[in-house]
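Researcher: Please generate the 3D structure of the following complex. Treat every line as part of one assembly.
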Amino acid sequence: MSISITAPINARHLSAASPKYRAFNLRNFRKIPQIERLSASDAFAVEVVGNVLPFRANNYVIDELIDWDKAPDDPMFRLTFPQRNMLRPRHFDRIANLLLDDADQKMLQTAATEIRWQLNPHPAGQLDKNVPRLDGKRVQGIQHKYRETVLFFPSQGQTCHAFCSFCFRWPQFVGMEDIKFVAKEADALIRYLRQHPEVTDVLFTGGDPLVMTAKNLAAYIDPLLEANLPNLRTIRIGSKSLSYWPYRFLTDRDADDLLRLFERIVKSGLHLAIMAHFNHTAELKTAALEQAVRRIRNTGAVIRTQSPLLRHINDDANMWAEMWRKQVSLGMIPYYMFVVRDTGAQHYFGLPLVEAWHIFQQAYQQVSGICRTVRGPSMSASPGKVQVLGVPTVGQDRTIALRFLQARNPNWVQRPFFARYDAKAIWLDELRPAFGKSRFFYEERPVEFNRQSLQVTGGIDENLGYVIRT
Ligand SMILES: *Cc1c(COP(=O)(O)O)cnc(C)c1O
Ligand code: SF4
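Model: Done. Output below.
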């Protein structure tokens, strides 16, 4: 069966036909016409915070997603433009004073770097964790934490069409973390997959791999298809392009080539999942988005959606219910609701786990089973992805019930466990075990695991991956 994805786009259906991508950042944001609608102090705040946290917007986000009548309080504005409260007051004042004093770039840089170090950049140090070995050497650009799934970081895919102000990869975008840990070619990936028959999924990630040209992306993917690996079943591509630049699939010069690549993946018998990142209903409303979704789905790819729960952006159960319903009616499948990580402007975006669970529960109860493919709220913590299941009182004890959706040790998955109730905790490492225990089950010493006869097979490096120590 041949699918016609290359039918010409009817430009009249697009609210702005074939716009050319224009990026805005700290250097040129004052040229954005709408910026004049901000007060001088709000525009100055963008500049102050933008000196510390990454900032990139584009003409689609500015013209179609942000409601400038509501800026600076508009959620899409907050999502892409730096805001005063994203820095602690002392940090904000320090940069503001330097700018007001016309301090030179070097002093500004020094201050910005000092502040960044206080924003806990390490959770983003993910790039060096779970790095597997191939023939005794560390493999560039691959992360293998969960048995079935390998993450792949193609070198040209380490940026995005716009930056999210909450992004945990912010140190990479401000040049704090050098991203030499990226893959230049697909060869090592293929060799790795050959040696690891337990891997079924490869997840292309970044940044946003779809900022790459179709040609560059094909240079990674076509060899993977040609290798015809019996274990490989799914290729996933994590991307925010549907939200930040849907023209990637419509009118960009190589949009059709990209869709043809998707078609080749599907025709080869693999499942292709676009892991699309949406944070707000505003991102789901444009004509361009609707067309882009349709074109992607016509290739046979499936689109699954995910987002963190963010204060000031989407901390609203009704909006989540609406997002899931809208995604389903567009033909997408809700997948994850994440808890934001403890880094960068976490004090601005973060919510306590208990509050996150209440929002999830209130949203989930509103939608039909078709939308309930979503799982959350989920923390991507070092032992694995931990979902908050609820806040039951067990006997006399108030607790938080949790489970692993995904874990370093596959045998931890799907086993409910309990933490002491804590209304303020925002992350797993702040929780303590319930019922007077001193450790969570996954923190027990390996010897005790053996006694429980956990059976895990097919491991990678025991210090890095999912094999437990014996
Ligand atoms: C989320 C995640 C995956 C994918 O997990 P699935 O449960 O298969 O969606 C893989 N690797 C890492 C490091 C992750 O955080
Ligand atoms: S699109 Fe993803 S990687 Fe890019 S800035 Fe947003 S959250 Fe970060």
